[in-house]
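Could you please review the protein record set out just below?
***
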Amino acid sequence: MPNDNHTAWMSNGTPYEIRPCLDPELHITPQLLKEQIRQAMQCLSAESRWQRFASPVHELSDEQLDYLTDLDGSDRVAWCAAIIHEGKVTGIGLARYIRCPDDPAIAEFAVTVVDACQGQGIGTALLGRLLQTASANRIHLLRGYVNPGNKRMLALSQRYGGKTTRARVCWQLDIPTAYTSGEVSAHPAPAVE
């Protein structure tokens, strides 16, 4: 998994970093990540939580947090977007995939950005990094289930060539080999997400 952190800018000019969600060199442990996810959940409106989880989730259980933070850099990957100000890290977005056990060339993915930062290009940058990582790990298809009312996620998926596969909205993103060779930017210009 590429582990280079980099600074990006929201459409409004605010800088943020994209980095692996777990990074021992930066002392980002599963416990710290769980706390960041808990805090980020408080920054999601009821509508955003419904769009992401398709249920009225108010907080995540310990089991859900364990699942989300069980990362290995290949089969279970997550990239985080964070604003770092005066040494304080505030998580603002996360993109993750989990490789499907029955077909190692396919992974299920999800992208979440806190309400205050939606529409700023963060989801686009996170999904680009996730596609790059998936390609490097020999995953050829990312599959995500999207609430039909989640216009930003549908637009983001379409931007990367996503296709609907069933009545229940399921987007599949074929990962071009260009991601492996570096021919395709993992961070296209911001657009509606």
